């Protein structure tokens, strides 16, 4: 399938209701409103195709950009490629669920994520923390430095309440992911989650929402999910 064929198929799969949901979360035109599950048959047909992924991502169409992440070849992408993708990831569903997910399957994942975390840019920071969540939830514990993960937890403890809104979500999820998927620091993550407490985020100008990693870790423990690892990062 070439670019034109994929775009036609995506347009045919689009639903107005799904489109409205995406827009309510920050997406903007152009987009068709394709449910991610409806993309799977095309993903299975195309498999990995980095040149096509680049063409799709460059369209600026949200559905095409998401599909690009599903067929990209992360190991063929350079740091410059990921930076370019982040430059046009205009809201969190792209930064955290397309770029960060794709990066998590690359050999340079931690190197790039570390730079994004310290960038001072909301969505890059969010993508960096999110990338670690995808990594910790998939790769063996031995691939991570315990001292580095402990230091990152301390950074979250000290900065989460004053961080940008989307970064707060990703940092909160980092505490939760360490607590459930990285066994060497489970106890420390539980301690820090309690110390951090509820994290207030602005859902909109009228309402606040509170995130609570401590409660979510306890729920995961109750469900027997301690040590959980995904078989694959990308579905």
Automatic annotation (TrEMBL):
Highest taxon, organism lineage: Bacteria
Q: InterPro entries given for it?
A: ARM-type_fold, DNA_alkylation
Name of the protein: DNA alkylation repair protein
């Amino acid at each position: 399938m070439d670019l034109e064929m994929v775009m036609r198929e995506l347009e045919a799969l689009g639903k107005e209701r799904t489109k409205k949901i995406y827009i309510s979360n920050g997406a903007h035109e152009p987009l068709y409103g394709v449910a991610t599950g409806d993309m799977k048959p095309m993903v299975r047909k195309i498999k990995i195709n980095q040149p096509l992924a680049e063409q799709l991502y460059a369209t600026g169409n949200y559905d095409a950009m998401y599909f690009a992440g599903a067929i990209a070849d992360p190991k063929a992408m350079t740091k410059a490629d990921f930076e370019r993708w982040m430059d046009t990831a205009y809201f969190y569903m792209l930064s955290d669920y397309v770029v960060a997910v794709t990066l998590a399957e690359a050999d340079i994942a931690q190197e790039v994520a570390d730079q994004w975390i310290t960038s001072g840019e909301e969505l890059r920071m969010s993508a960096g923390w999110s990338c670690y969540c995808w990594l910790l939830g998939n790769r063996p514990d031995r691939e991570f430095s315990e001292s580095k993960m402990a230091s990152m937890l301390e950074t979250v403890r000290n900065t989460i309440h004053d961080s940008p809104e989307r970064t707060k979500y990703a940092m909160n999820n980092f505490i939760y992911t360490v607590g459930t998927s990285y066994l060497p620091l489970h106890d420390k993550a539980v301690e820090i989650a309690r110390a951090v407490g509820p994290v207030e985020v602005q859902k909109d100008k009228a309402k606040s929402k509170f995130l609570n990693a401590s409660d979510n870790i306890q729920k995961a423990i109750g469900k027997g999910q301690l040590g959980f690892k995904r078989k694959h990062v990308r579905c």
